Amino acid sequence: MSFEGRFIEMLEHVGYDLAEQPIRFISPTSATVAEMNFFDPILLELFARDFVFSEKREHEIHRTLWELLVNARSACHEDLRKFVQIDSYVGGEGFVSRVVDDGRGFKAPQIIEERRKQLSLYDRERVVAGGFGRGEGCNDGGVGTYCLLTFANDFQYSDKGNEVAVRFDLSN
Q: Whole-model pTM?
């Protein structure tokens, strides 16, 4: 199935009304990671709809989206002409975020398969807390992919690898 097809499936799964506008955050790659204040509007929308999820789940979601934005920013090599964008679509059962960057992309299926084989090398608690949490023998990085494989309910990369849609169900 195409990226767009999977994306629409994710939106339907969380009960998103396609007529609504997403919560959008766009940043030039010149912004530092600390300046990427993307999560507060998402949380405000979730709380406005009386979603209840644990503090641990909030940290898992935040860490996953943070890693995706950091990777997107890095992919653009801080070229001032490039951008990083995140759109979040909140529905009755959860939300979907779509992260797009203006970088060259990467071979997502290959990287995901490598990381899937290395899941045991990560320390879940340290990853959520903000530490890398990698064990010995793990390739450099991979925390974003670990977060997708561990914390997200579903995700899909575009063929080019510079766009990812990730679904979080709030029943977890």
A: 0.84
